From TrEMBL:
The name this protein goes by in its record: Uncharacterized protein LOC101514553
Organism listed in the record: Cicer arietinum
Single Gene Ontology MF annotation: zinc ion binding
UniProt KW keywords: Metal-binding, Zinc, Zinc-finger
Pfam families with a match to the protein in the record: SWIM (PF04434)
Sequence ranges assigned to domain SWIM-type in this UniProt record: 20-52
Domain of life the protein comes from: Eukaryota
Gene name for this UniProt entry: LOC101514553
Length: 128
């Protein structure tokens, strides 16, 4: 069943306001979220509300509480003491410094100073 849904408010995702077509039987929406996430987008929820359907029947089983509980029901094995670890004889791996994130805070100055930047102290009248 093809339904058209008109957005009245700009969504927080930055997508433009418009009219979106929804096909609930084929689990398809113009925005693409319904197909990608296997979870009803706002357009599908609005269409389900219009035809008096429960939108929860279109939620994938991977989003159910039982599925989430099943993921965490297995116990993680304990890590043995470091003294029990086997000696590593492979190649040594080093991280790439160029891929490191910039530290938080004020950015470092990368400007090259010249003789114009070097001046004597107390040459500015307002500074001590």
């Amino acid at each position: 069943m093809m339904t058209s849904v008109k957005e009245l408010v700009r969504p927080p995702s930055g997508r433009a306001v418009g009219i979106f077509k929804v096909d609930i039987d084929k689990r398809w929406c113009d925005c693409g979220e319904f197909q990608a996430l296997h979870y009803p987008c706002s357009h599908v929820i609005a269409a389900c509300s219009f035809i008096h359907h429960d939108y929860m029947m279109y939620v994938s089983s991977k989003y159910t509480l039982q599925c989430i509980f099943d993921v965490y029901k297995e116990e993680f094995p304990a890590i043995p003491l470091q003294s029990y670890w086997q000696e590593y004889n492979g190649t040594e791996l080093c991280h790439n410094l160029a891929m490191r994130r910039d530290p938080k805070g004020r950015p470092q100055c990368t400007r090259i100073h010249t003789e114009m930047d070097q001046r004597e102290k107390n040459t500015h009248p307002n500074r001590n």
